[in-house]
């Protein structure tokens, strides 16, 4: 095939692909393409897995996926010397060695670059920024450090560092750098800065599905749907394996029309539980009060709170003049799964058609319930509906979309990543689709489905994975889980393992412990569970 090489990427997917044989790794990568627009770390991880096989003739299906991964990696990391080397060696980018030579020639300190480029932004972003600033101050043509500084800016959701205005890009790379800047702004949805660049960038974008998709959403936000669809069609033609392009075009042509009458017609219980977050709980209830929830009943479980949460909830009653609001006050914190079960056991829930769960630290879209009910009522076998979850901020970073079973063998059982790495909410995932798992911070369960999956597993106490586990219970019992991307939940998450979470070592240990419990719980059923991939539940992915 080509000489041995690899890309240094430290991501969870690298371990997953490495644990699978080549055919299974290819199937797993295909599932990711059916789920998300691929990200650079995941593409690099798959490339490494294929290269680990050594020189060989790849099976046609694997070769096609490998080619897609290489093209994606080069387009997403146009100033990464290692990735460009592979792009050149595969023959897919025959002229790219010129770019790579300029990158190497303008890199004043290769050893420093190798160290900082692999440091985790989550823990070292400020240190990386200072090193890049220092390098560019002394060496204003250091392209790789300018690129790395812009990547830190993207991670932090900010405009390019002021020092980049002094960056002296080599003339031969100037058009590519201009496109890099456009991608930065368009990725975050910064239309004011992206639009002026488009005319100059458009010729270079014609071969790049990622830039085309970002431009498509840019023009949608300007009200030009025809140009948006044209650009998406070009992106899909370049990368037909990426299912989200087709799903997005379908959603743009036939958008979901929520039936607002369902909010009045259907009996719904809205449940929240909280532990010592009085202020956030109050803000969440204030957000809920601004929503169209009809006569829905509200249950708030105080999970052993010792702060003033009860007073906050009691005062919130006046915000809901048309809704019954009940407080369940527990003397101790029983954890998230048991709190959910306590709420599910209430007669008000059992007598309803639907029960919604909300975390105590969310901001809600006013018409969310109409969207959820419209999706759920479209198919009586839909047992759960969830939404798009983002971090707070001017530019909303995706926190959680949806998941499927990505690895399922007797040695390992894992669900997929909940979002692609470092993608912002610009519109690509504003779709409605079947999936396997949705986020537990805002979702709607059909009460009838609870007969087949009545409880959240308390073995995952105090928190994490219990909602994932429950969705898989529903799927194995024949119920469907759907993602409603026309609803956006702003989640002020400070737990979990997401890119911006603030999980300490003890919390990380709890997550790891629950991963072990998850594996052993499902080990006896691994063959049934492996059918819960992504390709199997999206019709558009079948035609490959």
What does this molecule look like?
The chain is an alpha/beta fold and 544 residues long. The protein contains 23 helices and 12 strands. The protein has helices spanning 12-18, 22-35, 40-51, 60-76, 81-89, 97-105, 110-117, 121-138, 143-155, 174-188, 191-205, 209-221, 225-238, 243-253, 262-265, 278-289, 309-316, 336-344, 347-350, 368-377, 466-476, 505-522, 526-529, and strands at residues 268-274, 297-303, 325-330, 354-358, 362-363, 382-390, 398-400, 405-408, 413-415, 432-435, 442-446, 480-491. The strands form 2 sheets. Strands 1, 2, 3, 4, 5, 6, 7, 10, 11 and 12 form a 10-stranded mixed β-sheet that branches. The chain has a two-stranded antiparallel sheet with strand order 8-9. Helix 5 runs antiparallel to helix 6 and helix 9 (143-155) runs parallel beside helix 10 (174-188). Mean pLDDT is 92; it is low at 1-6 and 539-544.
Question: Descriptors for this entry?
Answer:
disordered C terminus; two-stranded antiparallel sheet; alpha/beta; 544 residues; 47% helix; disordered N terminus
- Helix fraction bin: 40-55%
End-to-end Cα distance = 24 Å
Count up the helices: 23
Q: What is the number of E strands?
A: 12
Taking Cα atoms only, what radius of gyration do you get, to the nearest Å? 24 Å
Specify the biggest β-sheet: 10 strands, mixed
Uncertain segments of ≥5 residues (pLDDT<50)? 1-6, 539-544
Helix- and strand-based class? alpha/beta
Strand content: 5-15%
- Global shape: globular
Instruction: Determine the mean pLDDT.
Output: 92
């Amino acid at each position: 095939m080509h000489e041995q090489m690899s890309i240094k990427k430290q991501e969870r997917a690298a371990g997953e692909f490495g644990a699978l044989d080549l055919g299974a790794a290819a199937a797993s990568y295909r599932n990711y393409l059916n789920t998300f627009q691929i990200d650079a770390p995941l593409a690099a991880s798959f490339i490494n897995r294929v290269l680990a096989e050594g020189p060989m003739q790849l099976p046609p299906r694997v070769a096609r996926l490998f080619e897609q991964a290489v093209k994606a990696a080069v387009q997403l990391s146009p100033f990464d010397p290692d990735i460009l080397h592979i792009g050149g060696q595969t023959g897919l980018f025959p002229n790219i060695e010129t770019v790579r030579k300029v990158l190497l020639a303008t890199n004043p300190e290769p050893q420093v670059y190798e160290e900082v480029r692999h440091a985790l932004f989550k823990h070292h972003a400020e240190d990386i920024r200072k090193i890049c600033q220092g390098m560019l101050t002394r060496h204003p043509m250091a392209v790789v450090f300018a690129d790395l500084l812009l990547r830190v800016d993207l991670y932090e959701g900010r405009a390019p560092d002021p020092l980049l205005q002094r960056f002296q890009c080599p003339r031969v790379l100037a058009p590519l750098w201009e496109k890099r800047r456009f991608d930065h702004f368009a990725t975050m949805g910064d239309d004011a800065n992206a639009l002026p660049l488009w005319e100059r960038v458009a010729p270079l974008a014609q071969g790049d599905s990622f830039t085309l998709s970002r431009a498509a959403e840019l023009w949608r936000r300007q009200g030009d749907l025809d140009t948006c669809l044209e650009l998406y069609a070009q992106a899909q033609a370049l990368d037909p394996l990426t299912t989200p392009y087709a799903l997005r075009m379908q959603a743009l042509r036939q958008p979901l029309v929520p039936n607002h009458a369902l909010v009045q017609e259907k009996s719904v219980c809205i449940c929240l539980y909280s532990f010592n977050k009085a202020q956030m709980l109050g803000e969440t209830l204030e957000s809920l009060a601004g929503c169209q929830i009809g006569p829905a009943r509200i249950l708030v479980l105080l999970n052993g709170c010792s702060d003033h949460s009860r007073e906050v909830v009691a005062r919130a009653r006046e915000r809901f003049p048309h809704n019954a609001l009940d407080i369940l006050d527990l003397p101790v914190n029983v954890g998230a799964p048991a709190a959910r079960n306590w709420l599910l056991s209430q007669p008000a829930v059992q007598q309803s058609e639907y029960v919604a769960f909300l975390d105590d630290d969310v901001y809600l879209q006013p018409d969310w319930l109409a969207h959820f009910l419209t999706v759920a009522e479209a198919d009586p076998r839909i047992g759960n509906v969830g939404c798009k979850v983002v971090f707070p901020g001017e530019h909303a970073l995706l926190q959680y979309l949806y998941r499927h079973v990505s690895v399922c063998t007797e040695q390992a059982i894992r669900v997929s990543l909940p979002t692609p790495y470092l993608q912002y909410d610009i519109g690509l995932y504003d779709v409605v689709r079947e999936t396997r798992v949705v986020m537990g911070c805002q979702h709607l369960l059909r009460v009838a489905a609870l007969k087949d999956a009545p409880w959240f597993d308390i073995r995952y106490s105090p928190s994490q994975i219990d909602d994932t586990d429950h969705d898989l219970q529903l799927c194995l019992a024949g119920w469907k889980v759907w993602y409603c991307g026309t609803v956006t939940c702003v989640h002020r998450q400070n737990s979990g393992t997401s890119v911006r979470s603030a999980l300490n070592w003890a919390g990380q240990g709890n997550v790891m412990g629950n991963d072990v419990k998850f594996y052993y719980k499902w080990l006896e059923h691994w063959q049934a569970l492996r059918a819960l991939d992504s390709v199997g539940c999206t019709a558009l992915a079948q035609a490959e």
